[in-house]
Amino acid sequence: MLLVAGDLTDNGLPDEAQTLARELTTLRIPVVAVLGNHDFESGKEAEVRQILADAGVAVADGDACEVRGIGVAGVKGFCGGFGQRALGPWGEGIIKQFVHAAVDEALKLEAALARLRTETLIALLHYTPVQQTAEGEPLEIYPFVGSSRLEEPIDRYGVSLVLHGHAHRGQLEGWTKSGVRVCNVSMPLLRRMFPERPAFRVFELPVGGRPGGDQNPPVRREGISSWTPVPHA
């Protein structure tokens, strides 16, 4: 399957989505995607999502799907920072709204993971759930690269692999507290790290078995539609 971790467009315009949709219709494998912050820029994210859905792309927003025996839970995620330095819901109303947006994304991810029954689980995000893959970005923008609130449901449900974008100057890989592997697949990062290769990564995961920690990790090769939605409970 092809997994796309957000920023499907530059400026969130329908004609940009149409261009991508035309390219993706030539594929003969399932495609699952989430939206990124760029896709919200023009306030037309619903149109962008619909154009891609009409092209056979499963655009997840707190949704869960099963593709060839692998469960995929997808959300955009949001900002807020990491660990003890994460922004808390205190003070002005606008700060509370900001934090609640991050909490809501974490709750959507939790609900999506809860609906899946496959042994192998992938969390597809745009924002990173761990600080490690944000390192390399300017310190001033760390709170806007991701949120550790996304980490808790990932650890609780024993996710096999996490993929995210957004951190263009970050690191390729990190780990959650329980040892879940987190991989940054941002295209600018991959182009910089592997200038001689196409800007995508290829992973092989077992169907019917869930790797734990650093034992039996997904096989990685550098280089990078039918789907079954899981009904809401």
How would you describe this protein?
This protein is of the alpha/beta class. The protein has a domain at 62-224. It is 24% helix and 20% strand. The chain has helices at residues 14-24, 45-54, 93-115, 151-156, 187-193; strands at residues 2-5, 31-34, 58-59, 63-67, 70-74, 120-124, 161-164, 173-175, 181-184, 201-204, 219-222, 228-229. Strands 8-9-7-6-5-4-12 form a seven-stranded mixed β-sheet, covered by helices on one side. Strands 1-2-3 form a three-stranded parallel β-sheet, covered by helices on one side. Helix 1 runs parallel beside helix 2. The longest helix has 23 residues, at 93-115. It is globular, with a radius of gyration of 17 Å. Mean pLDDT is 90; it is low at 210-233.
Structural category is: alpha/beta
Total beta strand runs:
12
Q: Which oligomeric state applies? A: single chain
Provide the β-strand percentage band.
15-25%
Helical proportion, percent range: 10-25%
Name the shape in a single word. globular
Describe the sheet with the most strands.
7 strands, mixed
Widest beta sheet: strand line-up: 8-9-7-6-5-4-12
Overall pLDDT score: 90
Terminal-residue CA separation: 25 Å
List the secondary-structure elements in sequence, H or E.
Answer: EHEHEEEHEHEEEHEEE
Tally of helical segments: 5
Summary, kept brief:
By secondary structure, this protein is of the alpha/beta class. The chain has helices at 14-24, 45-54, 93-115, 151-156, 187-193; strands at 2-5, 31-34, 58-59, 63-67, 70-74, 120-124, 161-164, 173-175, 181-184, 201-204, 219-222, 228-229. Residues 210-233 have low confidence and may be disordered.
